[in-house]
Amino acid sequence: MPADFYAYEELLSEPEREKVRRMRAFFRTEAAPLVEDYWARAEFPHQLVKGFANLGLLDWADPDSNEPVPSNLMTGITSMEMAHFDPSLSVFFGVHSGLAMGSILTCGSEEQKRRWLPAMSRFEKVGAFGLTEPHGGSDVSGGMETTARRDGDEWVLNGAKRWIGNATFADLVVIWARDVETNKILGFVVEKDTPGFSTSKIENKFALRIVQNANILLDECRVPEANRLQNANSFRDTAEILRRTRSGVAWQAVGVQFAAYEIALQYAKERTQFGRPIGKFQMVQDLLVKMLGNATACAGMMVRLAQLQHDGVYRDEQSALAKAYCCSRMRETVHWARELFGGNGIVLDYNIGRFVADSEALYSYEGTREMQTLIVGKSVTGLSAFV
């Protein structure tokens, strides 16, 4: 990757680098030619799902597989590399693997892992994750409106979820609901076509348009006890999944910055004004170097975070700082890139506009900058500013 100025990719093992090369080839040849058209139409390119499966990135999640669990650095660079080609496809993969499969891996029984993970690791079944609600985003932990009521060997779910990626076509959705008897937050795997479960696509988005976000309605939706995640007993279990995936969003922000820089660099070499490539102008070079500096600094932060994760000593506030900082720098970087393009920057044909728009969604989702700031602020001061 030309933007990898400090050769962070070289920190991977050779087998991991080979997987990155295969992934890069797939996205360059199969995905890149499709994304602008599908982004413009706000549709998902389902024909790419088989290609995701063929990459073998999730083979390790099958309980019967001998494939080693990827390193934290490899997991992060996977998110970064996908976002480098298209943030929406990276989100699709992250929701399926990190949130849906992650919920089953973290909170499921051994029987549940064997029931769902093999097919999910091969993308034969696609997952989604239903936490956010129409009236609850950052405060959903304390005000979850979706309820679960035990009725014999079944649970009856009622409520609504919003902004649920993959949900319009997912085969199963992990739904988080409040037990009306104990007030605890429980997790349930709701399979497609379950009576009382319905989805509707959220229209008119101007960011992550390929991601099929949905509203979910649960109306007397009956789920068997066998589909309740057996080791999910409080919101702390939900938060543990989010803690693990939050850093993935920061890695996506790095990938978007690398993409914006590379697209702008290529344009600067090819676009001529006043009889010379615009890359020869000092102000254009200044923009390019600022973009590269932002992306490289964020990548360095994420590499160190991956090391802390590997050592088992990283903390919530470290993931929060990474998400807040990398996404803030991403906003700067993509807008500097758009500035370099002038008027051409607002036309999809030049590719950069898609990253400018998509960055706005990454900036907000999985915890806004303000919420991450409060997490870090509490850590450094010892004082809580949460209301």
Please explain how this structure is put together.
By secondary structure, the chain is α+β, with helices and mostly antiparallel strands. It folds into 3 domains: 8-126, Orthogonal Bundle (Butyryl-Coa Dehydrogenase, subunit A, domain 1); 128-227, Butyryl-CoA Dehydrogenase, subunit A, domain 2 (Beta Barrel), CATH 2.40.110; 235-381, Up-down Bundle (Butyryl-CoA Dehydrogenase, subunit A, domain 3). Helices cover 52% and strands 14% of the residues. The chain is built from 11 helices and 9 strands. The chain has helices spanning 14-41, 49-54, 72-85, 87-107, 110-121, 140-143, 235-270, 282-311, 316-341, 352-364, 369-381, and strands at residues 127-130, 147-151, 154-164, 172-179, 185-191, 197-201, 214-224, 272-273, 276-277. Strands 1, 2, 3, 4, 5, 6 and 7 form a 7-stranded mixed sheet that branches. Strands 8-9 form a two-stranded antiparallel sheet. The chain is globular, with a radius of gyration of 21 Å. Residues 16-122 form the Acyl-CoA dehydrogenase/oxidase N-terminal domain. Residues 239-380 form the Acyl-CoA dehydrogenase/oxidase C-terminal domain. Keywords: FAD, Flavoprotein, Oxidoreductase.
